[in-house]
Write a structure and sequence with these properties.
Length: 441
């Protein structure tokens, strides 16, 4: 029976596994708490004025942050910063791990070292959220709605400090919520929070699409075409995210006393998209920075630069693709070290057939990784450029594809894999219960 049919058949028995059922219910409840928090506004802010401002801020860094926060930034809720400070702190710590010997040593210490690095990441999250919260509070004092109404009723340092503390508390709460989901629920908690925020925006986008179809702005044939394309793109993403280049590895036999160890053949899997969704996030942040600054600085030359770097223009798309390719190679080099892989293989008696262990093996792994990273970078670039093409050519009222779709599909695949592992473990337990194991007397 094919693996997909086995999984589909097994998913029907989720309700019969008490532990898995509790984990799924706990995950859904925590995500519901997150969505409730998105609707709680920050004191001292006119929410209606903020909504009108975000209607003008589409295509800027604020629009991207609003997408990742699930609309919390648009509502200026207590969870406005979302989980982005935690992600930024994690990325910064990973980059510093290569540059600072102390962090690199902690990374190699196992579980104790990872806990220490996680603690540093939490401290960094608190610091970044305070800085970002204070910056947003200062920026909000200068914003006005199209009718001239100020976003902040009573500006001043009391508002700034209260808002910064509120935003920081919301980010820390989401960080704790994500850790609880990871420990007691199903899937990666941080990824699921981002997943829930993006998915929560999809119904409104679909409603806008059908509203345009009723008014005649979009034809039914175009809607059908978009649905077919969506299914094709999701299938393509699933295929590429699971694609890997397998390098054959042979382990030599070792004789210890009267026992013989090793001698088996295996492989080293190299993912086509090793960097994941980090490159488009970095590239989007850099490309949208001028458009975001232009919302606060009304200078002619700044406005010209911002207009030239708006999504949909050929200049923007060209630089965007180049930035994604650069960050794909950069981040892959940061998280994957062929020299360490080759040394570990050599220590355990492993080698690639036809290559000498050590430097020759690391050079070969680096060569293969460089080639498949180019394929992964082109794939990520194509998915991220797709929304601009749909908006400029077909007048689609929402971003289809891009970083959001990569996150949604990737998190969905990872969560289903964890559910499958729970079901497989349960099946093995069932096999063990039906067998009688006789021990020695």
């Amino acid at each position: 029976m094919p693996r997909g049919r086995i999984l589909f058949k097994g998913l029907g028995g989720i309700g019969q596994v008490p532990e898995l059922r509790k984990r799924i219910v706990f995950t859904l409840l925590m995500l519901a708490v997150y969505r409730i928090g998105v609707q709680i506004p920050t004191p001292g802010i006119d929410v209606a004025a903020m909504v009108s401002f975000f209607d003008r801020a589409k295509g800027t860094l604020f629009g991207m942050f609003n997408m990742f926060s699930g609309g919390a930034l648009e509502n200026m809720s207590i969870l406005s910063l979302g989980i982005m400070p935690y992600i930024s702190a994690s990325i910064i710590i990973q980059l510093l791990t290569v540059a600072i010997p102390h962090l690199e040593a902690l990374k190699k210490e196992g579980e104790a070292g990872r806990k220490k690095i996680s603690q540093y990441t939490r401290y960094g999250t608190v610091g970044l959220s305070i800085i970002q919260g204070l910056g947003i509070a200062i920026a909000l004092e200068s914003l006005t709605a199209p009718d001239g109404a100020p976003v902040v009723a009573e500006p001043g340092w009391s508002f700034r400090l209260l808002s910064a503390l509120t935003f920081m508390s919301g980010t820390v709460f989401l960080m704790w919520l994500g850790e609880q989901i990871t420990e007691r629920g199903v899937g990666n908690g941080i990824s699921l929070i981002i997943f829930a925020g993006i998915v929560a925006r999809m119904p409104s986008a679909m409603i806008d699409t059908f509203s345009l179809m009723r008014t005649g702005d979009i034809h039914l044939a175009l809607v059908i075409f978009l649905l077919v394309m969506m299914a094709a793109v999701i299938g393509f993403i699933c295929f590429m995210e699971r694609s890997q280049r397998r390098i054959p590895v042979q382990y030599a036999r070792r004789v210890v006393g009267r026992k013989v160890y090793g001698g088996q053949s295996t492989h080293l899997p190299l993912k086509v998209n090793t960097a994941g969704v980090i490159p488009p996030i970095f590239a989007s942040s850099i490309m949208m920075f001028p458009a975001t600054i232009a919302n606060f600085i009304q200078v002619p030359w700044m406005q010209s630069i911002a207009q030239g770097l708006m999504p949909g223009t050929l200049f923007y798309e060209t630089i965007f693709v180049m930035a994604i390719i650069f960050f794909c190679y950069f981040y892959t080099a940061m998280i994957f070290n062929p020299v360490d892989i080759a040394e570990n293989m050599k220590k355990h008696g492993g080698y690639v057939p036809g290559l000498r262990p050590g430097r020759r093996t690391s050079e070969y792994i680096d060569k293969v990784l460089t080639r498949i990273t180019l394929i992964g970078a082109i794939y990520v670039s194509a998915i991220c450029v797709l929304p601009s093409i749909l908006i400029s050519k077909f007048n689609v009222p929402f971003y289809f594809g891009g970083t959001a779709l990569l996150i949604v599909v990737g998190v969905g695949m990872d969560t289903m894999a964890q559910i499958e592992s729970h079901l497989i473990t349960r099946s093995y337990e069932g096999f063990m219960k039906g067998a009688r194991l006789k021990g020695r007397r």
